[in-house]
Amino acid sequence: MKKVFTIGLALMVILAITGCYGPQKITRMFDDWGNQMYVDSPWLAQLLLYVGVFGIGMWVCSIIDMLVLNVIDFWGESAFRGYGTPFNHQAPTVPAKK
């Protein structure tokens, strides 16, 4: 069991340091949402950051992206087109000054 754990851990580290994660669409949409929330309400955004909502949300989104969505994106589109899929971030909209 220890050998399987060590091999699995080594494989995860190798995959993590290669940086080939794909477009990470869900994670980047969550990040855009967090940026917009900070523009709209910085106090609420900081509270959610300190409570851990953003950290847990980023972790869950990253896992979903890496294990499911990036694999589908790669084998469904990118591998056969020969180029990757870009992600266009949304710029936060700044409310008008009062």
Task: Write structural notes for this entry.
With 98 residues, the chain is mainly α. The protein has one domain. The protein is built from 4 helices and no strands.
Q: Can you give me a brief rundown of this structure?
A:
The protein is mainly α. It is 73% helix and 0% strand.
- Sketch the topology as an H/E string, one letter per element: HHHH
Helix content: over 70%
Structural class: mainly alpha
The backbone outline, from C-alpha atoms, is flat
What value does the Rg take, in angstroms?
Answer: 17 Å
Strand segment tally: 0
Quote the beta fraction.
under 5%
Outline the low-pLDDT stretches: none
Tally of individual helices:
4
Question: What's the SSE blueprint?
Answer:
Elements: H1 2-18, H2 25-40, H3 42-51, H4 53-81
Features:
single chain, 98 residues, mainly alpha, 4 helices, 73% helix
